[in-house]
From TrEMBL:
Region (Disordered) location: 36-81
Short name of any one Pfam family annotated for the protein: 14-3-3
Domain annotation 14-3-3: ranges: 90-212
InterPro entries: 14-3-3 (IPR000308), 14-3-3_CS (IPR023409), 14-3-3_dom_sf (IPR036815), 14-3-3_domain (IPR023410)
Protein name as catalogued: 14-3-3-like protein C
Family: Belongs to the 14-3-3 family.
Amino acid sequence: MQVAVSEARPQAGQVFGRAASAAIASENQLKTILNPLPSSHFKTTPRSSQSPSPPTLSIYSSQTRTHIPHSPPPPAFPRTQIDDSIMAPREENVYMAKLAEQAERYEEMVEYMEKVSASLPEKEEMTVEERNLLSVAYKNVIGARRASWRIISSIEQKEESRGNEDHVNTIKEYRSKIETELSKICDGILKLLDDRLIPSAAVEIQKCSISR
């Protein structure tokens, strides 16, 4: 019995020593895991006190640029030498008549040229440009109504051939309206010629030109 106990003691000591060594090793591993890494292990870059500005974008590229065409400027008309900053009424009406011609608003063109004629001093003639503008204005105003009269007259003949009396009467009334407008315009230009343009024309050639 004593021999068995004495033999068991060394074996127990060996087992205890191994367990203690294992416990120490486990404790060292645990410390290694739990201990944080030194601060020198991490590399930090200092932050600037000012935030970086966002990149700016340029509308125009150095490689491709888009060219947007601009509308051409209006035609330049000569001004009077007396006052270059403010147009005189006569010059302003001539300018407006040119604008009305470009816009194909010939009724307004007639009105502006009548104002030009009314603004002429006594025995002062129209310039060649003003006479041409007046001629163009009345020619287009009368020409448009003459074309309308021809179209309406043609339709009237067709309706008469078909026997549509109601339509024929309506067309005659409409044609009469166009004829009244034509007569009024012709009376206006004749009155303008007799009262203003022909008496102020000093040269016979100009009188013939105006009368035509």
